[in-house]
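REQUEST ID: PR-0412
SUBMITTED BY: lab tech R.K.
PRIORITY: routine
TASK: structure prediction, single protein chain
INPUT:
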Amino acid sequence: MSDYKVLHVDSDSFGDFCVLDDGDYRVLSFGDNDEQSKMDKVSPHVPQHTYVQAMLSVLLFTQPKSVIILGLGGGALVHSLRHVDAAIKITAVELRHRVIEVAKRFFQLPLSKKLTLINQDANVFLAGGEHKKVDVIFADIYSNKGVDKQQLTDLFINQSKRLLKADGFLVLNCWKEHSRDSHLRDTLYRHFTYVYACLTGGGNWVVYATNGSGNFAGANNKQALQHLSQKLDTNISRVLTRFGPWQ
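STATUS: complete
OUTPUT:
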């Protein structure tokens, strides 16, 4: 990241973070050599990280009308979802108020009546259980120390399930080492009938869990893959080469 210039430095009670820019791309960083979010300034809808591409692959299995994003960051998921379908109602929950402000100021966050921003701890938000049920919950709660461990607990998974429609999907962004976490796998299967996962080239373990029909055939549907890839201007099939049931 040596070619990047520091555009903005910020801080709150949770730590320091900064915005970097190399002319073409903008990066939100929570630590040294860390890219929490990355955006192509000309085409902000194009997901830059393989884990974001993998999380968006859930669009092969469902056509959501409403979603919840836990962990806003620079708004990469918001940008891509809005580009795929501007009618999707998005609720984005972010713990850090300063991160929300930075996403607005530096990452072209597409503000509209279809986007609701909530400054709150995701665990508190889930515990409240007041949001209408949605089609997809994207859980991407990270800090400079890595994935939020609460995101991997039975309580978190159960509370997420309660805010999903009957055929809704929970999409978890984890690390590669979690692919060997049998406790997490078994916990997911206690709450969901179908649990699939994808190991990305970037070292993330992205999980898709649902009690719906488990329509995962879209991962092998060339027409569906081509359609989503064209929408996002990226080759989605490449990120699904290591996709399948979590066994």
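NOTES: The two ends are 37 Å apart (CA to CA).
REVIEWED BY: pending
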